[in-house]
Amino acid sequence: MSERPFIIRISSLSKHYTMGDQLVKALDKIDLDFRENDYAAIMGPSGSGKSTLMNILGCLDTPTAGRYELNGQNVAEMDDDELARVRNREIGFVFQTFNLLPRLDCLRNVELPLIYAGVSPEERLERSRKALEEVGLGDRIDHKPGELSGGQTQRVAIARALVNHPSIILADEPTGNLDTATSRDIMDIFGRLSDAGNTIILITHEEEIARFTRRIIRLRDGRIESDSAP
């Protein structure tokens, strides 16, 4: 059986900031790979570099040095239009605060990435409905975020991340605003998505949440402290 192809390859990646007269090494010469269908958690104390790493993985920030390849392409060589296309089509984002538009119903929130991608209205409707059904909200398509529970709102955000069939799903503290039972429900959804072949990387500070994944990467002081199965 052949090895799964690489989705992400990072080599000697660094991100440095200057604060006053002090140099802050948010990331310091990191080497890291993710293969297709990886299901990984990134953990670390405050200031360890995990949010910086997530922003670079999501093409929301650029490294000071090093190389980042996404699906074989050097991200540093992409122009602004190419980066915008990658963020919309290749990466699905799930945030702790959901980031849904309150005046739009679930269906309209989910179809937003498809509008930016130029997908026809008929296909947008079909794909958005299917994405909501995948997360168990097929009967809530006409509800607005304010009419949903926290767990249901996060499911909508996951459906929006899925709708463009991205190469990778990045989730930043996706259970941070949810109670324990609801958090487990959300992680069950990620587990099913992973079983279906999706590549998922999430940031969490909760050990219980990280144990749902198949790989835990721990950062400390901008460097990888460990990378192992839970």
From TrEMBL:
<keyword id="KW-0067">ATP-binding</keyword>
<protein>
    <submittedName>
        <fullName>ABC transporter ATP-binding protein</fullName>
    </submittedName>
</protein>
<feature type="domain" description="ABC transporter">
    <location>
        <begin position="8"/>
        <end position="230"/>
    </location>
</feature>
<keyword id="KW-0547">Nucleotide-binding</keyword>
<dbReference type="InterPro" id="IPR017911">
    <property type="entry name" value="MacB-like_ATP-bd"/>
</dbReference>
<dbReference type="GO" id="GO:0005886">
    <property type="term" value="C:plasma membrane"/>
</dbReference>
<comment type="similarity">
    <text>Belongs to the ABC transporter superfamily. Macrolide exporter (TC 3.A.1.122) family.</text>
</comment>
<dbReference type="GO" id="GO:0098796">
    <property type="term" value="C:membrane protein complex"/>
</dbReference>
<dbReference type="GO" id="GO:0016887">
    <property type="term" value="F:ATP hydrolysis activity"/>
</dbReference>
<dbReference type="InterPro" id="IPR015854">
    <property type="entry name" value="ABC_transpr_LolD-like"/>
</dbReference>
<dbReference type="GO" id="GO:0005524">
    <property type="term" value="F:ATP binding"/>
</dbReference>
<dbReference type="InterPro" id="IPR003593">
    <property type="entry name" value="AAA+_ATPase"/>
</dbReference>
<dbReference type="GO" id="GO:0022857">
    <property type="term" value="F:transmembrane transporter activity"/>
</dbReference>
<dbReference type="Pfam" id="PF00005">
    <property type="entry name" value="ABC_tran"/>
</dbReference>
<dbReference type="InterPro" id="IPR027417">
    <property type="entry name" value="P-loop_NTPase"/>
</dbReference>
<keyword id="KW-0813">Transport</keyword>
<dbReference type="InterPro" id="IPR003439">
    <property type="entry name" value="ABC_transporter-like_ATP-bd"/>
</dbReference>
